[in-house]
Amino acid sequence: MGGLVQASRALSVRLPNTTVKRTAGAEWTIVAELKTLTSHLDWLEAQYDEMVANLAYLANINSGSYNIVGLERIAAELSHLFGGLGGQVHRVALEPTVRIGDDGEPRVCEFGPLLNVYKHPSAPLRVLLVGHMDTVFGTEHAFQRVERVSPTQLKGPGVADLKGGLLVMLKALECLERSPWAGRLGWEVVLNPDEELGSPGSAAHLRAAAGRNHLGLVYEPAMANGALAAARKGSGNFTAVVRGRAAHAGREHHLGRNALRAAADFLIAVDELNARRSGVTVNPGFIRGGGPVNVVPDRAVVRFNIRLSDPVDEAWVLERLAAINQVINARDGITLALHGDFGRKPKVLDAAHRRLFDWVRRCGRTLGLNITWRDTGGCCDGNNLSAAGLPNIDTMGVIGGGLHSVDEYVELPSLIERSRLSALLLLGLASGRCDGAAFKGEAP
């Protein structure tokens, strides 16, 4: 398919500062006031073909989390697109981190660039918009190209998670910048290259950005039925490296210390934490060790993920892991080193988050959408922002399904539907129809 279609440079028209008065608690009044903004959304309807073309173009560029060349290319394309908004565009090099390889040895993990775009940073109310450039599909994966499977569906790597959301974000901001209220709402965009890895390189940047803003919007895809994610579980990724002693399996079996057996015992003990505490789940996902069967294996590597709903559960889990680790390390000739942590804390649906959901629901009602939300066991950068004290909604992207599989698809009409939803919220905040002052007291 062809190259990117460049968006037109945003227009900025100023109107006198006005204050909107409304009857407290009158839902119909709020929706009626939001309705006055919808004429500014009409421009979005004409953006459909451009958005579909750009989505296909971006999704056809492989940007797997470890494909630095592909991420560099995506960053360049997005710098071009978001640069059309007239804000400051910065490309940020992320510091490498150390990751334990499948062989149990430390490896330096490098990341693609992070993009930071901002405009009107001195505005009294500021919103942070977050999305990721990486996908789970590496260069070796068979799923590489976009396919139009029906007039309303596009199938391809990252079309929903999250490249469709990046275009929704872009068009919503462009709509704001074309409006009479441009400049009354400050905004900052963070596009990171490592979300699918748990954002190990960009976590500090997300935390810093959360501290500069009053509320956040993350453009992960909505549920397949259009619902938004509410509370989210926290997540921890761990790797256990078990070392024993190699020996001839026949002649000197008694001299060996079997690391694979110790790793299996550790894995069973960790798995048995399931059902011990409500909301805590453990998923052993990887084990590697051994080699020729006539050699006692001296090394094994185990990877597992733990999810939890309540922040206080983290201490309980870490205590149990330490106890299991101690038991294994007490064995003669066996050592177990545990690596990892809870990179994402649980996202709790507190009062500030509920206020933001209410405003999105009202914007949806104004547009004829029934916006609902439900808790989920998944996690994303919305967890990071919440942990930094920033109320946010983290499924403002497109509607789609088949995420992280060769069946990933996007419902193309949702490109416009969700752009309108985000744009109306931004216009509501900028014009005063949405009560942004309620979030200022919640800012970190």
Automatic annotation (TrEMBL):
Keywords: Cobalt, Hydrolase, Metal-binding. The active site is at D134, E195. GO terms for molecular function: hydrolase activity. Coiled coil: none annotated. InterPro entries: Bact_exopeptidase_dim_dom, Pept_M20_glutamate_carboxypep, Peptidase_M20, Peptidase_M20_dimer, Peptidase_M20A. The keyword Phosphoprotein does not apply. The keyword Coiled coil does not apply. This is Peptidase M20 dimerisation domain-containing protein. SUPFAM superfamilies: Bacterial exopeptidase dimerisation domain (SSF55031), Zn-dependent exopeptidases (SSF53187).
